[in-house]
Amino acid sequence: MKFLIFIILVITVLTVDHPEVNKVRSYLVNLIGQTAEGEYSRGKVPQRIYNEISMQFDSFKPREEEYVKEITKSSRDLMTFYGTYCQNGEFNPKMSAYNVRVVCVKVTEQFTDLENEIIRKRD
What we know:
elongated; mainly alpha; 7 helices
């Protein structure tokens, strides 16, 4: 019964056209939008992966660091790297095998989030 009353109240708040109700509705919609945007902002996952990899840059050469920076600029570039070098195991001429494994481990840890971000970006 309480749930039914709550649903009726929510529907009423969403459908009533009163200035005070509009302020509350607008505030709630903006709050939900900001939360969703912060949680699912574009490029957040590659940036998080780059930050995790950068903590291990002491084992990377400068050219490898630049390469990691380049591939973590977008989710699609990161997924291409993952498919080519992590799943297919192809030789990467720009990085040592050890550092490729380091990147692959970090991408694997965030793989679901990375896939979800790519799906959200589809137009």
